[in-house]
Amino acid sequence: MSVRILALVGSLRAGSHNRQLAEAAAKLAPEGADVVLFEGLGGIPFYNQDIDVEGSVPAAAAELRAAAGAADAFLLFSPEYNGSIPAVLKNAIDWLSRPYGAGAFGGKPVAVIGTAFGQYGGVWAQDETRKSVGIAGGKVIEDIKLSIPNSITRFAETHPADDAEVAAQVTEVVARLQGHAGAAVAA
Asked: Which residue intervals of 54-110 are DSSP H helices?
């Protein structure tokens, strides 16, 4: 049985190291794990309950919810913006948390990893993301963590998939998340 893991990247920048990290996760996923990057977070309007009305939910938000509904688990990639979670990722979490009590996370396993320019690799933002997605209904796997510091220099000339240490760490993250998702699906 294949496990479908939806990857959400909290950076919209074309050369984003977090996007490259997500690409590495998709490329290096072990057999039986399918990591799918969601494209289009930048096109989703800010969450507003007034526009979250059945039959008129913005198309981009409906696409995100459909992709989340088809996922067995989530892998969120968060850089750190001013010491916290990027707005685009928080907005996605907000859309997926609704309707209240029946959001798309629905107790599915979630892991949060990322890379950032600073010496701590974005741990504050990743911690905030875990907190937010847990409140939104996801089952945060607290012991799956990966914060890669100094992204600008570390990945200046090397894609994360080509960095042996990072490739091994990302593969382990996906395999562990796959295990949690497989156990949840089988239960």
From this structure: 59-69, 87-96
Number of H helices, E strands in the chain: 6, 5
User: CA 2 to CA 7: how far, in whole Å?
Assistant: 16
Please tell me the pTM assigned to this model. 0.96
Residue 151 near residue 17 (C-beta atoms within 8 A): yes
pLDDT at residue 187, as a whole number: 65
Specify whether the CB–CB gap between 139 and 76 falls below 8 A. Answer: no
Q: Are 21 and 158 in contact (CB under 8 A)?
A: no
Spatial contact of 176 and 141, defined as CB atoms under 8 Å apart: yes
Q: Residues 22, 161: contact at Cβ < 8 Å?
A: no
Nearest to 152 by CA among 10, 9, 7, 20: 20
Mean pLDDT for the stretch of residues 170-182: 96
Alpha helices by DSSP H, listed for the chain, are 17-28, 59-69, 87-96, 123-135, 151-154, 164-186
